[in-house]
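Treating backbone geometry as a discrete language has practical consequences that deserve illustration. Part of our work consisted of pairing the sequence of a single chain with a tokenised description of its backbone. What the numbers capture is local backbone geometry rather than side-chain detail. For completeness, the protein is quoted in full, as a sequence line and a line of structure tokens:
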Amino acid sequence: MQYSTCQIQISKFKQGSMEEETTTLDDDHGKSLTAIFIFFIATAFQFGDKYLALHKRKASMSEKDLQLRAEIKRLLKEAAALSQPSTFAQAAKLRRAAAAKEKELAKTQETLTMEMKTSFGSYERILMISKIVVHTVLTLWLWRVPVAAISKQFVQPFGN
């Protein structure tokens, strides 16, 4: 496609119409800028998604939750070490304490998820709506405009 455009430009130049050649070159330049523009918009939305996900993940890791997890792990390790029949009561007590800590951890995580939904939910919703609007506008704006061109050499095996 590029080669045929170049050949047309050369023939127009030989005929003496310089104005038509410059408009063709400007159109090609505009098409390449359009592709770059679309790339930067898509990249910006992708970075926005990653930024929100990172901050959401950081907010979900509180110091209290990490301490509870370490305490649960320690209690279960101690209970596993006490596997003798004489220490069965102590091991069962440690397992019950670990189960109580797990319930406490689940409760704090549930409240944390509710808080995160309220704080990050609006940002995620705004980002999703803006994605839909921008992609719809770009699709309607560039419906008949070729965004990228492929040379005939690459398409030659597929036919004319």
Q: What stands out?
A: Confidence is low (pLDDT under 50) at residues 1-26.
